[in-house]
Amino acid sequence: MNKDQVKGVAEKAKGKINEAAGKMTKNPAREMKGDAQQAMGQARKEMGDEREQAKDLAKDRAKHTH
Length: 66
Hints:
Number of domains: 1
Order of helices and strands: HH
Helix content: over 70%
Distance between the termini: 26 Å
Structural class: mainly alpha
């Protein structure tokens, strides 16, 4: 797991908390902030997933060329 994956998951968690807090306090701005944080967290996690895949692919190719 790389840092983008970890930070993405953390951002998604913060977003869920903000979304829930916004719903409980009837604060639509905070709810929207939570939704946005979740989307950004998901995007960052996916970017990390892609980097991890690329790293694994490079390792596999290096094994097969030697």
